[in-house]
Amino acid sequence: MGATVIGSWIKVGAISPESYWIALLGQTVIAIAQALIMPIPPELAAVWFPSHQVSTACSIGVIGIEMGLAAGFIVPPLFFQCSSSGDDDVGKVLYQISMALSIVNTVVFILLIIFFKGRPKSPPSIGQLKFENSVPFLESAKTFMYNRSNILLVIAYGIVVGLMLSVSTLLNPLILSYYPDAQEDVGWIGLVMILGGMLGTIICGVALDVYGKFKQTILALSGLGIAAMICFTFAITRGIEFVYFMSAIFGFSTLGMQVGGLELGCELGYPIHQGIIAGILITSTQVSGIAFTYLYSYLLETHGGYYANLTMLALFVIEFLLLCSIKYNLRRRTVEMAHKERI
């Protein structure tokens, strides 16, 4: 969080075109901080909450990240609507946005320092108690990646979240290639996608806690993502209202998979520390997100939206097949259930 604050204040001093390199430096610092923040939700959930609330707590943490994405789709356009198109006005708006973000980040950082505690006095679950003796990172990562199901999960998770990142990044040229006059709709479609994802995230987390059906829940979300991509590919021209609806379904499935994949990784990799597992999974999404964004952009420019979406659909199918091939050995839940039976 401290790096985010530093990066935000660096960007405050990078409003003029001549200060582009300063803005790039600030954004780089923030990006590094984001890589450290993304694995936190499953870590906090496992450290602070009992086993029957872990998935729900993780989903709430992931929703916080998604709320930031949603704000990113809608807040900047609202700021710019209040200004004219002059360079001075654009610079003024950018300064206002950067200053507001810096102040908010600073306040949150101070509150974290004052009120937040690293962990409770005693572990909330028998599963968390097993993490007392820590294992070095490289050894834990090597152990996790030696398992076939874990490798399949890392690849599948990287594909589904990477696809979501690429589609959301290139949503503007994708929508405008079919609806040239829908400039204002693009931001709202992105917001609807994230809101649908927030709903999918919390439903997935609660369902995993209440029913514990990891395989059924994750495959259902993956299948729903395939259905949404099929509609994007073959029926995107049916009207802008249809695009809104399918964006919500797409966000519901792909962002719902975020918490599902993180929690499944912690189950399959137990007793490896959940922060290490989350870091490996998040790394796969960043790598695939960059690769898929370049691929999607290239296909949009050279072959159009139909073939670009068709390629993304093929990747979705591969991800579904990988998820079907995983052995859903829920080790953490097995330990918890065995402890309850002894009691």
From TrEMBL:
GO-annotated molecular function: heme binding; heme transmembrane transporter activity
Q: Which UniProt keywords apply?
A: Membrane, Transmembrane, Transmembrane helix
Q: What is its main location?
A: membrane
A GO-annotated cellular component: membrane
The UniProt transmembrane annotation reads: 20-42, 54-75, 95-116, 151-176, 188-211, 218-236, 242-264, 276-300, 306-330
Q: Gene3D superfamilies, alphabetically?
A: MFS general substrate transporter like domains (1.20.1250.20)
A Pfam family per the record: MFS_1
Q: Which GO terms describe its biological process?
A: heme export
Topology class, membrane? Multi-pass membrane protein
Q: Where in the cell is it found?
A: Membrane
What's the protein called, per UniProt?
Major facilitator superfamily (MFS) profile domain-containing protein
